[in-house]
Amino acid sequence: MRRFIPVAFSVASLVAMFAIPQTAQASGQHHLSDASSHLSIQADLTLTTNTKTYPNRYPWGYCTWWAAQTKLTENLENLGNAGAWTSNARRRGLPTGTLPRVGATVVFAPWVQGAGWLGHVAHVIEVSGRYFRISEMNFYGGTPFGGYGRVDYRWARIGSGVTFIY
Asked: What's the CATH number for 53-165?
């Protein structure tokens, strides 16, 4: 017998997960047993989260606000307009590159893949070859249909004018 547990996330719950710094520690032996399927899982879990957070002073509703808000444990403050994030992050000593990784911040140069004249930033949530799926705000496209102050998801591709902050 298979059991499915429906999971739903709202924008508010995602923001709360990323915005509230927490220290969590769980260790020891954890045992899960399900007699109906004779499944037994045993794991030793240890989790510690980074408690240092940085302020988000970007204006709400824009891509820069969403990118900073979802990564408060990374020093993404005061990087300027979206298109300047890679060069400013590099000057600050943050690692950058041209290959997508889950959890990276993607920077689109102005006019690249739908970005406006100030560029665009988002977060990589999935990678498949030369393509990657992003979570973004203030982009008029994606699913569900985005826009100012709305989060959406879409696929993008690596190429000229696309860089990443790791």
From this structure: 3.90.1720.10
